Amino acid sequence: KDPISSSLKIKSQGEVHYFNSEDSKEAYFDDNYLYLNQNPLIEISKILLKGPHNLENACAAILAAHLAGLSPKFISQGLENFKGLPERQELICEVNNIKYYNDRQGTAVDATIKALNGIFGNKTLIFGGINKGMSIDNLAQTINQNNVIAVGIKSPFCTELAPHLNNYHQAETLTDAINLASKITKKPGCVIFSPACEYGPYFNPLTGHEDAENFNKIALNLT
């Protein structure tokens, strides 16, 4: 459905296939199933990665695997068992009825928006770093409209975004942010670490931020 991706078909030297679009009869989804050649392949509830963008990715994988010769059985098994890549909406643990997701690779505004839209329930977002020159308007709107509690790790991006948020809290380090989020997140709920901006290059050189890449360890140590 993306116009930029679709426009590339005129440059393709091979056969063009479509997924999850009006032109696709091979791989697409509705509210309940993902389909292959108009036949139900797997229930959406069995896909571990949540959110429409992950279902779109799944459709691309279904079609690629099918064209490579894999059977529907093996494709559905692969989808059901795929837990995602590290630091991409990765569920680390659940403590005191709160789930902790590591989306460290969400270093762009749109990536964080997709993470927020893909995970349901009461949410607290941990973010921070320095902007890559992206507009923050849609992110602020998504946070406010979905009643997301925002916890910023003190940084230029937080200074930029905080004035536009309805429910904002500030922490000094990632450890502080996780501990604070564990106390203020509504239960049942989830904490999502998704920087929304350039994270590592900003925090890793700073004294006092030796914990900047330790989300998993910090979350697993919560009691």
Radius of gyration: 19 Å
Helix run count: 9
The major β-sheet equals: 6 strands, mixed
Shape: globular
Strand content: 15-25%
The number of strands is: 9
Low-confidence stretches: none
Distance between the termini: 44 Å
Helical content stands at 25-40%
Order of helices and strands: HEEEHHEEHEHEHEHEHH
Class inferred from helices and paired strands: alpha/beta
Question: Going across the major beta sheet, what is the strand order?
Answer: 4-5-9-6-7-8
Mind explaining what this structure looks like?
By secondary structure, the protein is of the alpha/beta class. The chain is 35% helix and 19% strand. It is built from nine helices and nine strands. It has helices at 3-7, 52-67, 72-81, 109-118, 137-145, 156-161, 174-184, 200-203, 215-220; strands spanning 27-29, 33-36, 39-43, 90-95, 98-102, 122-127, 149-153, 168-171, 189-193. The strands form two sheets. A six-stranded mixed β-sheet has the order 4-5-9-6-7-8. The chain is globular. The chain starts with a helix and ends with a helix.
